[in-house]
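Justification of resources, computational component.

The compute hours requested in this renewal are based largely on the per-chain cost of generating structure records like the one below. Each record pairs the submitted sequence with a full structure-token output. That output is archived, and it is also reused by downstream analysis tasks.
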Amino acid sequence: MYGLEPPLDYHETIATALARTVADRPTGESALTALRHAYLAAVERQDPVVGFSSPEFAHMLAESPTLTARLRELHDQREEALADVLTTETATTPDDPTPRAAAALLTAAHRTLFHHVQTLTRAARPHEEIATAATRSAERVFDLLEPSLGDYAVR
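The structure output for this chain reads:
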């Protein structure tokens, strides 16, 4: 458990984690599958990058316009980095919007799940309970993306 360690201290990791996961995925694995596996492993570790923190920090983050704006900026940087990797990995031209659209959907899933973890944290739920709920939610969210992105960017 991470206690008071704030997720924003991990700005570099937050901004690059999805892109690194996709770039490092094994042969035969789609971007979606790689990101699903990485997210579930991060939940198991109760990693701050997916939203685990103390209730105090979660409240401070939600109530601070400055911190909320910074978090939004990090999510935007994350999307940009993922779009760049997907453009390279799928050998598309820069004018093809497909990698950017896929990156937007994949990062929206992670942003949604991050906020879900933070909501449960602000409610002072135990981290084990949050991890269980986050795992169930992640399965539903990633399953929603499966029909459109399940075969996209398979290495």
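Helices lie at 11-23, 31-45, 55-63, 65-89, 98-122, 127-149. The chain has one domain: 7-149.
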